[in-house]
Design brief:
The protein is an alpha/beta fold and 375 residues long. It has 2 domains: 171 residues, Rossmann fold (3-Layer(aba) Sandwich), CATH 3.40.50.720; 184 residues, Dihydrodipicolinate Reductase, domain 2 (2-Layer Sandwich), CATH 3.30.360.10. Helices cover 32% and strands 28% of the residues. It has a 7-stranded parallel sheet, with helices on both faces. Strands 10-11-12-7-15-16-18 form a 7-stranded mixed sheet, with helices on one face.
């Protein structure tokens, strides 16, 4: 019997996940914007419209389903996950909200539900790979470099957003945490830029971002961990100017008697600049290096991903790499292969060899290939 799955959010990633899950499940897509859902109806996906801030309506709408998949903007992610937990439903989520997901752990356990958070590409797949190697290695360092970029570099930003503009801006303002010599170091986002060459792409610029998230709590024994975001060289200066001028501020200003948050104006202005035009292609690049001791030998595992827009279906790479990680895990929860109660960051998924292999095979079956090398 086909399982019933509800996908909250019909943006570029939410839509890709609904289409993927519909191959084996009965899927309902929910969003406030009916226009973004129209193409889903042509392939047999049911659609509903609600305002996700109406938590009572959200609680009610998820109850008939076997699994909830979350793809809402980060600023509403925490309250959405909490509403799903209170409804007593299992969930896999990619909203990447700024709050600590473990604040919901006790509630999730009391409701006896499985909630997998941050289940995208990074955070997400990077955590799963680290969790996998943590079972067999004494890890001394982990580095994850990741970015999603347009193929055509268009002045001035040379960037296009697949996610909500405010979620992207959060990367530029949220303090970056990493672990160095077993101590948590906090620096401003966009700090410590470094030029790095990637085969098939060229030179990109990396900088500190707050991508470790749950790993700081769940992997305290690893003395060195860092995640950095990748962009085309030169974009940092534009972003620093905007940030330091106050364009990313959440503090309200009085403009002609109206209260306005600068970040809302900035997001409104940037969205048309960052929106991919029809037919535009982008790619996701990621490099993970995990070093340590395994079977009394020093080893470094390196994973490289270079994924591009699927020209056949038009599915964007960031939607594929983020969304298909989430849908792979959704299948594991649906069939009972993963049933840990409470809040589960993705690294917990990687601990089981069978589940790790399933996720890797699932992604490869959809053309998302992580190339592994051992040094």
């Amino acid at each position: 019997m086909r399982k019933k799955v509800i996908v909250l959010g019909a943006g570029l990633v939410g839509k890709a996940m609904a289409i993927d899950l519909a191959k084996t499940c009965d899927v309902t897509s929910v969003d406030i914007n009916e226009e973004s859902q129209k193409e889903l109806t042509t392939i047999g996906i049911a659609i509903r419209q609600i305002d996700f801030t109406d938590l009572q309506a959200l609680n009610s709408i998820v109850k008939p389903f076997d699994l909830v998949v979350g793809a809402v903007p980060g600023f509403m992610g925490f309250q959405t996950v909490r509403a799903v937990i209170e409804a007593g439903k299992n969930m896999v989520d990619i909203s990447f909200f700024p709050e600590d997901p473990f604040d919901l752990d006790a509630l999730a356990k009391s409701k006896n539900v499985t909630i997998v958070t941050d289940c995208g590409v990074a955070p997400g797949m990077g955590n799963i790979i680290l969790g996998h190697h943590n079972q067999t290695m004494k890890i001394t360092s982990s580095e994850c470099l990741v970015g999603g970029l347009p193929v055509v570099r268009e002045w001035p930003y040379e960037y296009k957003a697949v996610f909500s503009p405010i979620d992207v801006i959060e990367e530029y303002i949220r303090p970056a945490r990493y672990v160095q010599n077993s101590k948590v170091v906090i620096k401003e986002a966009l700090s410590d830029p470094e030029l790095i060459h990637f085969d098939g792409v060229g030179t990109l610029e990396s900088w500190n971002s707050d991508g470790l998230r749950s790993l700081i709590k769940t992997m305290p024994h690893i003395p060195n961990m860092i995640e950095k975001t990748l962009r085309y060289p030169g974009c940092i200066e534009y972003l620093r100017v905007l940030r330091e001028t106050g364009f990313f501020s959440y503090e309200e200003m009085d403009i002609g008697g109206n209260k306005v948050r600068p970040i809302d104006v900035t997001a409104k202005l940037l969205f048309p600049k960052w929106k991919l035009k029809p037919g535009e292609e982008e790619f996701t690049v990621m490099r993970i290096r995990i070093s340590g001791t395994e079977n009394n030998q020093q080893k470094t595992y390196e994973y490289n991903l270079l994924d591009r827009t699927d020209k056949t279906t038009g599915t964007l790479s960031m939607a594929r790499t983020t969304g298909y990680t989430c849908t792979a895990v959704a299948h594991l929860v649906l069939d009972g292969s993963y049933s840990r109660k409470g809040i589960s960051p993705p690294e917990f998924l990687g601990e089981n060899e069978t589940n790790f292999k399933f996720i890797m095979d699932y992604l490869e079956g959809r053309g998302v290939k992580y190339k592994q090398a051992v040094h």
